[in-house]
Amino acid sequence: MKRLLTFTLTMLTLLCLTACSMPLKSVTSRKNGLNCAFQAKANITLDKLQAEGTVKRLGTGVWEIEFSAPDSLSGVKLEFSEGNTKASYKGLSFSVPQSAVPVKAMLLNLMKAVDENAANEELKGDEKDDLLEVSGKLEGGEYILIIDKEGKLSGFEMPNNSLKMTFTELTVINGETADTTQPVTTEQAAVTETASVTTTDKAA
Fold it and tell me: What is the number of domains present in the chain?
C-alpha cells in the first residue's frame, strides 16, 4: 500500500512539474488598423495553386483583386460588392472563369474575416515573431488573421483548406476609413454565387 501511495505521489509531482514547465500562450491586444480602405500585393497559395495579384479593400464587403499570375488568371479582375461578384478582363465583363472559382471562395472568407474584425476597437490574439495571430471561425472553416505592428493585415491562413495568403506593400488609400455600417453577410454572397452558377449552366 505504501509503495502504491509513493508511486502515485511521484507521478502527481512529475505531472505538476511538467505542467509548470510548459510555456503558456498569452493573449495580447494591438491597435486595430483594419478599418480602412487599403491596397496590397498578395501572394496566394491554395493547395497546388499559386497566384499573385493586387488586393484592394474599398469598404465593408467591397473588395477587388486583379491577378498578375498565373498565366491562366493574369489580367483577370474580380470585384466584390453587395454580395455580388463581377469578373472582367481589360474592361470586358464575363462570368467568373473556372480557374478563379476556388480563389474566389477563399477571398470571400478573407473578406468576411477582415470585415468582422475591422469592427472591433482592438485586435486580440497570440503574439508570434512580432506579429499578432487572430484566430476565428467561419462557415468555411477556422482561420488565422496575421497582423503587423501597425495593426495592418499581413497574412491570412485557413490550414484546413490548405490556404495561405501573404500581403506586402500595404498602403492606405487616401487615408480613408472604410464604412462598417452595412456588412455583407456570407449568406448573401452564397446566394449570389449559386445564382451565378445556375445562369452559367443554362448558358452552356
Answer: 1
For each successive 10 residues of the chain (204 residues), what is the average pLDDT?
Answer: 55 54 65 96 96 97 96 95 92 88 94 96 94 96 96 97 97 65 40 38 40
Listing from the earlier edge strand, what are the strands of the sheet with 122-128?
Answer: 27-31, 122-128, 131-138, 141-147, 153-158, 163-172, 38-46, 49-59, 62-69, 76-81, 84-89, 92-94
Contacts of 42 (CB under 8 A, 6+ apart): 52, 53, 54, 55, 65, 165, 166, 167
Helix or strand holding residue 158 (H, E): strand 153-158
Classify residue 159 by its DSSP letter. G
Distance (Å, rounded) from C-alpha 104 to C-alpha 203? 21
Task: Give the CATH number of the domain where residue 148 resides.
Answer: 2.50.20
- Residue at 21 is within a domain: no
Instruction: Write the CA distances from 189 to 83, 182, 183, integer angstroms.
Output: 4, 14, 11
